[in-house]
Specification:
single chain, mainly alpha, elongated, 102 residues
Length: 102
Amino acid sequence: MDELLIRIPHHFKHEEKMLKEIRFPPIRAHCLSHSRLLERADKLAAQLRDRQTTSGTVLGFVVHDVVARHIVLEDREFFPWMQRHKADNGRAVPSRFRRKTP
């Protein structure tokens, strides 16, 4: 469970760097969403260590709040922006940042 919670800030840091590179206009609001999720993750991690919550509660947070709500819904807002805009260095947005189509 700890490893799962450790990966969240790494994902957000990588994502925020990419959003800065493409000059995503609502970056502040998106980063604020990250901060709120990280605060909740830290609180849940402490509660789990102190046995004040369960692994199921932490997993529910990761699945519902981080994956379903944030990654699936909120992160989708910048996918079209990435496709339309180029990074500051004038090169096309790297393919690892492009939305994959079926």
